[in-house]
Design brief:
single chain, about 290 residues, alpha+beta, five-stranded antiparallel beta sheet, four-stranded antiparallel beta sheet, globular
Length: about 290
């Protein structure tokens, strides 16, 4: 039998194992708090849906998700999970850094043109048990944390090998090249004082046509998309920094902190400070969503 270092070298570049950055369980049935479209620059994420159903938006695609599905997020991809009911979807969520699977970019689970949702099927009970074990060991003694890291690497490898089926296909995509270009423009400028006229001028089209095309393809008006991108960034800053809510409001494009607070509550369902408090309580004060 091959030595573990040899086996690791055949799977991972330079034989380096991935690092489990965070691990948590989102309890099914809690009041729904949306986490709008956002991305991470230094890690990738793997989710296992253990109860509930909804939609996973990633880049320009959307997937129906349900109990037993594995949900993949490669580093740098814009993504969000939206429950189809008024309560949270039940998920196990694991963030990894230093993921160097051979033939893939750093911090990528799967090729970008591969389906981002896959059914675990008969593996579902085992993966749920493995997820619980990771959560248990990840917050214990150094020996237990090391065990949690190794179990996390095992989960990652199992997920990376999970086969796709014909059912794991995109259920919707951006309707046109124009919509894709609009999203790219907004994603590059959403923290600025952005107006519809600016987007229309940059893309050489009329404001009414731009608005109609974008909403038909995405379900949001361009301005609603700007707001969701700003709130998504605000959530990342709230859970990864000590910045005040007022400072974060400025960073994401709002000069009026009261207006920012009102928008945040409307989108997320709670205030910025309460959102930060709830998150830190769930993760015992750790800030690791980078």
């Amino acid at each position: 039998m091959k030595h573990i270092d040899t086996l690791a070298g055949e799977v991972f570049t330079d034989g380096q194992l991935p690092i489990l950055v965070n691990a948590n369980r989102q309890d099914y049935g809690r009041q729904r708090h949306d986490r709008p479209m956002h991305g991470h620059d230094s890690m990738c994420e793997l989710l296992l849906c253990y109860r509930g159903f909804g939609v996973y938006h990633v880049n320009d695609f959307s997937y129906i998700i349900q109990e037993g599905d594995l949900i993949y997020y490669n580093c740098g991809e814009l993504h969000e999970v939206v429950s189809s009911t008024d309560v949270e979807i039940g998920t196990y969520c694991f963030g990894f850094s230093n993921v160097q699977l051979k033939n893939l970019p750093v911090n990528h689970f799967i090729p970008m043109d591969s389906p981002h949702v896959r059914a675990s099927q008969s593996m579902f009970p085992f993966l749920c048990n493995l997820s619980e074990q990771i959560l248990q060991y990840n917050s214990g003694s150094p020996d237990e944390q090391l065990t949690g890291q190794l179990l996390g690497a095992s989960l990652l490898m199992l997920a990376a090998q999970m086969p796709t089926t014909q059912q794991q296909t995109q259920v919707a995509s951006a309707a046109s090249q124009l919509t894709m270009h609009m999203k790219e423009y907004i994603d590059a400028h959403y923290t600025e004082n952005l107006k519809l006229e600016d987007i229309a001028a940059a893309l050489n089209c009329s404001v009414p046509y731009l608005s109609h095309t974008f909403k038909k393809a995405t379900g949001y008006s361009p301005i609603q998309y700007v707001i969701r991108r700003r709130i998504g960034l605000a959530q990342t800053l709230l859970i990864s920094t000590d910045y005040s809510a007022t400072h974060i409001a400025t960073l994401v494009g709002y000069d009026n902190p009261n207006y920012f607070n009102a928008l945040f509550r409307k989108v997320v369902g709670t205030t910025p400070i309460r959102y930060r408090t709830n998150y830190l309580e769930a993760l015992r004060g750790e800030r690791n969503q980078l």
